[in-house]
Amino acid sequence: MRFIREHKTASKIVVVSLFIFLFVSFTFGRYIKNILNSYILETKGFYFNSTILAVNGKNYSINNWDGVNSYPLTIDINNRKNSERYTKTDITYEISYNCPSSVTCTLSKTEGVLHPEDQTDNYSLIVTPKQNFYEGDQAVVTTTVTSTSPYVKTMSATYTIGVLKSNFSYDIVDSVNSKFLTINFTNSISYYQVSEAFSTYNVGDQVSVDVYNNLSQTDKDKCFSSIVTVEYDPSLLLVDMTNNLFLRRLNTNYEEVTLADGFNYVKKFSFKVNASSSNSIIFYKDDVSKNYTYPVVNPNSIIRVSVISAN
Asked: In sequence order, what are the residues at sequence separation of 6 or more whose Cβ sits closer than 8 angstroms to the Cβ of residue 285?
């Protein structure tokens, strides 16, 4: 005790260092334990995996939330190590989440069964604001999946969903073995802009939604809230040509390309998005083993998106 009193500073450093060492050792030890447990289970032919979740957790940072609409998260689960090795019995599992009081979280299901013949499954976690969110605000949400039979294994992921007060945003929802992906567009601008003069309106004038709704179709065509252009590789993706946005595409920026089979395919097109609205387009995938989810799984979008918004 006398030594400690005479060397208070040194003693504090030793205590703090010891605490840090024990904390790091415990954390690292738990990390190694989880990895070893997963390896042991795989030696028994048990595969319970995900491209999004992990036994030691994964962290994702999302910064394209408008803070007003619900934010959907799609999580996949599979029972395989590769195309030839997979679990040959049913895997039952439970799903849970941890959300802050500022949002409401809703699961598409709380439990499920992963069948050998399916090899993949997924669920959705919908995050809905309960209060006003402003630029820079965020919500931290964690989702956890635990297999209950034939063995126990837990995987999780934590999402930090940040608010970016942008006039326009988009995301891509996809999963492994899905034949198509969905790209969602959200236009937060609450008015229109005149692009071609008509009646008493000049180019650049703003038009409210109420006024716009009462215009003739001819005059509506002379206004816009957001004009979106999408461009993609048609050897990887094919647009759903029955979609309303594609059917109402503009003549500008419309491009096709001829592939090796000698047929022409759309590679680029533009369309208008109404004020304060959300829209979606389905694209069919050439390779169903890919997961093009953006921005959660992939930092870059498989579809290039550009937008011209009303001022």
From this structure: 174, 178, 179, 180, 181, 236, 237, 292
